[in-house]
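Appendix B. Raw example, untouched.
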Amino acid sequence: MDNIALIDSFSEFKDFKHIDRVTLMAILEDVFRNALKKRFGSDDNFDIIINPDKGDMEIWRNRIVVADGEVEDENSEISLKEAQKIEPDFEVGEEVSEEVKLFQLGRRAILALRQNLITKIQEHDSTNLYKQFKDMVNEVYAAEVSHVRPKAVILIDENNKEIILPKEKQIPSDYFKKGETVKGIIESVELKGNKPQIIMSRTSELFLEKLFEQEIPEIADGIITIHKVVRIPGEKAKVAVDSYNENIDAVGACVGVKGSRIHGIVRELGNENIDVISYTNNAELYIQRALSPARINNISINETTKRANVLLDISEVSKAIGKGGQNIKLASLLTGYEIDVIREGTQVLEEDDVELREFSDEIDAWVIDEFVKIGLDTAKSVLKHSVSELVRRTDLEEETVEDVLNILNAEFED
């Protein structure tokens, strides 16, 4: 195999690995110099001439002519007799340049050359990939589903790069099919051995923030700023926004006419319910807005403990707490205050408790009334009692009480 033929056989890696020809030739020279060092002990007296345009190369060994019988280093010196076989008028002290053909390296060396080239190209490809995606951390990215596995979805981008979307980084309602385009945020890039592992997330608060930047020009332009984002992926989120321009309705701009701007974001996040709130430095007003849609009667704040007691009418309590306590949990995260809900004339209600009348679609109204009559108007207040005690204190059958307890228990198990 001559030099040009070898170059042609190696060139297949260029297209497969997306490496430009100049880079390939630089890698090739490095590989050849390593091979020359192993074969001849040094590559200092070798010239490797690579033509990236034609894709060919030449290797020349330069040696000094010495008198016959005085050769001490066969790699850097050549006897006069041997030099004159190349060119009859060579004299002692002159430099001889002789082309080295690949067969002179030996078959095993050529095989090693090929393997070394593969390794070098893989290292180059991995380094470039790592640098490329390291610069894209915290940016939104889209790729196509290649494989759906129990613990992760494997994505492939347009450059055939692999991206991993772990199960725990997926929205609970996500369902992916092969060939589908998936959007998420590049959360991290880690080197596993020599191979970069690119991790995507769809549950990150930053993903929601970046979607707002993409969909709402005023945020991209800096007219509206996002103060904070909190979310329960796939269920509910709260976004606090502000604007330095008093003439700009930050909330209205984010939501759009009839929800036109936010609709695409909601759909992308599996119909996640998004509350957009106007940020304020007034803590009481901020908490009030964060607990929307509940209407607050009064708020008392302890700045030392960062707790807030919120007084509401009984009819507003379930709105403040929300399904499974989601609304009050997100309001606490958004404002930085631990929020306790107090019903008018009652004690503090547990954060994740639910008004009994919220179950009116599963429990008959007259049954709920029986519990309310004895002062049990929330799910947890009912669950604190045994079946026998509830039967004794109400005008309900044991079977009815058991059915109610099963329904209430199921709520908190979910």
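End of appendix B.
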